[in-house]
Amino acid sequence: MKKALLILSILFVSMSYGQEVKQIPQINVNGEGKVKVVPDQATIAVTVETKGNNAKDVKKQNDEKIDAVLKFIKKMNLAPADYKTQRVSLNPQYDYEKKKHSYNATQTIEILLRDLSKYDELMEGLVNEGINRIDNVTFQSSKLAQYQSEARKLAMKDAKLKAEDYVSVLGQKVGRAMTISDNSQTYYPQPMYAAMKTMERSDASAPRETLAVGEINITANVTVSFILE
User: Fold this and answer.
1) Which residues contact 223 (CB under 8 A, 6 or more apart)?
2) Alpha-carbon distance 11 to 224, whole Å?
3) pLDDT digit string, tens, across residues 143-197
4) What transmembrane ranges does the database entry give (predicted)?
5) Can you tell me the distance from the alpha carbon of 167 to that of 161, in angstroms, rounded to the nearest whole number?
6) pTM, whole model, 2 decimals?
7) Contact, 219 vs 32, CB < 8 A?
8) Residue 1 clears pLDDT 60, i.e. is over it
9) Where do the DSSP E strands lie in 53-182?
10) CB of 119 within 8 A of CB of 92?
11) Distance CA 136, CA 152 (A)
12) How far is C-alpha 205 from the chain's CA centre?
């Protein structure tokens, strides 16, 4: 019985290898969709940094500045959910030449500014209240998900158009998609902002221009495999 089963297994394997593997005609193409958007909000990371020889005094001074900064932010009528403490630190530092310890206290606040018309007022007020380090400013769109969806659709249309161009000379047609790979990345411009530095104008009454937000390129990249008919 075992011998018969072994013979049947060998015959089955032989028949399987003897059969031809049917190849499905297909084409692989890349597609790109791009949407350019003017930012309508910004995420700002600012820090109060205080140095001194006494840890308790350094922390106290830093806390006082942060208190003034938070009160100013509240006066700007920002929603409580739009600003938060990102990190806090108090670190000892040793000066080997003077053989003395000093201390460095920092607290970083992250702010989501939904109205860019308040940008200059906010930045100048922060500096006046004690902010001495602007770590990062990232401009973005409040409708990012919508624009990403548009970019993805454009990428798929681009991929199908490319496939149709390639196969049109072969007398074939592009069929349904077999696989789709999303290779998208979103880029946010992150300009360096010098606090209190503005463009000088000869006309003092003219409004100052301190911000050039530019555009966000929201790009979707896909790789699609289409069946050929």
Assistant:
1) 28, 29, 30, 31, 159, 179, 180, 181, 183
2) 39
3) 989 999 999 999 999 999 999 999 999 889 999 999 999 998 766 555 544 443 3
4) none
5) 10
6) 0.70
7) yes
8) no
9) 83-95, 100-113, 133-140, 174-182
10) no
11) 29
12) 37
